[in-house]
């Protein structure tokens, strides 16, 4: 993860970390994962919403996140119930865990906010390496939403020179301070990215929902499931 993205995400107060609260697609997918016990990896676990869901479903859970305060809080809360580590999920060194050891992995919107195209590619490479052959991945993406929301169209146009790619923009707080970089995907890009990183049996569900940071506005999301070849 490049230096600015690392600083952005590491500095959030745990309670303020943007979190996807729409979990129904993930819950449906987890209901199809019948093998137990199973090792689950929560990539970008943040304040632990997905980690708790995985624990409740009977998985043995490992969570990784770049935010030290969030990891410390989860360790205090969960104790030995789950294993959590401070990690840069886009590090060229990987996740620093037992490679190819996980039955399932969940990556909830992290690929949209991890940084630039190189960071996204590294995140998916690390995820592939962490799964066992035949292991399953649930991964969600923010989708291009200019057709749904004029504000997104303005954001894409405003920041394309700064980010170097259409669909990427700088998320800011109410005072205009940059919080983090966000990328919105076309559906074809989601499929291509997963294929390029060794995933097969790709299925993509598209949903129109409330925006993660602008709940009064609509946005597009893609929920993808796939398997490590």
Brief overview:
The protein is an alpha/beta fold.
Spans of 5+ residues with little confidence (pLDDT < 50)?
Answer: none
The strand order across the widest sheet is 3-2-1-4-5-9-8
Residue share in helix: 25-40%
Number of helices: 8
Shape: globular
Gyration radius, in Å: 17 Å
Q: What is the number of independent domains?
A: 1
SSE order, one letter for each helix or strand:
HHEHEHEEHHEHEEHEE
Which fold does the CATH topology refer to? Rossmann fold
* Residue share in β-strands: 25-35%
User: Could you report the average pLDDT, rounded to the nearest whole number?
Assistant: 92
What's the main sheet like? 7 strands, mixed
Structural class: alpha/beta
CATH homologous superfamily assignment: Vaccinia Virus protein VP39
How many beta strands in the DSSP annotation? Answer: 9
- CATH-defined architecture: 3-Layer(aba) Sandwich
CATH class: Alpha Beta
Overview of the molecule:
By secondary structure, the protein is α/β, with parallel strands linked by helices. It has one domain (3-143, 186-228): Vaccinia Virus protein VP39 (Rossmann fold), CATH 3.40.50.150. Helices cover 34% and strands 30% of the residues. The chain has 8 helices and 9 strands. The chain has helices spanning 3-10, 24-32, 49-56, 68-78, 110-113, 117-130, 150-163, 187-196, and strands spanning 39-43, 60-65, 83-86, 102-108, 131-143, 168-172, 178-183, 199-210, 218-228. The strands form 2 sheets. It has a 7-stranded mixed β-sheet, with helices on both faces. The chain has a two-stranded antiparallel ribbon with strand order 6-7. Strand 8 (199-210) and strand 9 form a beta hairpin. The two termini are 25 Å apart.
């Amino acid at each position: 993860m490049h230096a600015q993205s690392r600083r952005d995400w590491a500095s959030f107060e745990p309670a303020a970390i943007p979190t996807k609260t729409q979990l129904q697609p993930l819950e449906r997918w987890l209901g199809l994962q019948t093998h137990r016990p199973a090792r689950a990896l929560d990539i970008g676990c943040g304040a632990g919403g997905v980690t708790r869901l995985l624990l409740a479903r009977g998985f043995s859970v490992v969570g990784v996140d770049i935010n030290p305060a969030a990891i410390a809080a989860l360790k205090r809360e969960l104790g030995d119930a789950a294993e959590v580590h401070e990690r840069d999920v886009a590090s060229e060194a990987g996740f620093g865990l037992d490679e190819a050891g996980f039955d399932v992995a969940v990556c909830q919107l992290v690929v949209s906010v991890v940084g630039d195209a190189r960071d996204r590619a590294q995140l998916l490479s690390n995820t592939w390496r962490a799964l066992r052959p035949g292991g399953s991945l649930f991964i969600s993406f923010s989708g291009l939403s200019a057709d749904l929301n004029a504000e997104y169209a303005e954001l894409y146009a405003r920041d394309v020179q700064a980010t170097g790619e259409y669909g990427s923009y700088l998320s800011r707080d109410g005072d205009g301070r940059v919080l983090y970089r966000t990328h919105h995907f076309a559906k074809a890009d989601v499929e291509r990215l997963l294929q390029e990183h060794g995933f097969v049996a790709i299925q993509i569900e598209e949903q129109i929902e409330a925006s993660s940071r602008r709940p009064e506005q609509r946005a597009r999301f893609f929920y993808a499931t796939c398997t490590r070849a």
